[in-house]
Design goal:
Length: 124
């Protein structure tokens, strides 16, 4: 059974950094695009970043561009999200997701597999 599990969330002060990891199992996720989404309390789940199956192309939401970096290690079936210069508005549950396509999408409905999420809290 295909499974995604996020880790690395926590509490950090504004300006700090966190590195999220998403471990995939039960399927060859290395052949498919992956993404990170987040959901803050009372808000809809939103796109954060995505990466193609090979890692050759990435895309970011404007709100995180220049601060977050998505990467993947296909040998380890793992995707990462390096988050620097964190702001209180980055506070949310962060979800890892996988598509059935090689190229990424911004729309969450294109993602068929989801992890349970990891909480990121940024204090001011």
């Amino acid at each position: 059974q295909a499974q995604l599990v996020e880790s690395g969330g926590g509490l950090v002060q504004a300006g700090g950094s966190l590195r999220l990891s998403c471990a995939a199992s039960g399927r060859t996720f290395s052949s498919y695009a992956m993404g990170w989404f987040r959901q803050a309390p009372g808000k809809e789940r939103e796109f954060v970043a995505a990466i193609t199956w090979s890692g050759s192309s990435t895309s970011y939401a404007n709100s995180v561009k220049g601060r977050f970096t998505i990467s993947r290690d296909n040998a380890k079936n793992t995707v990462y999200l390096q988050m620097n210069n964190l702001k209180p508005e980055d506070t949310a549950v962060y979800y890892c997701a996988a598509t059935n396509f090689r190229l990424y999408y911004y729309d969450l409905v294109k993602y068929d597999y989801w992890g349970p999420g990891t909480q990121v809290t940024v204090s001011s």
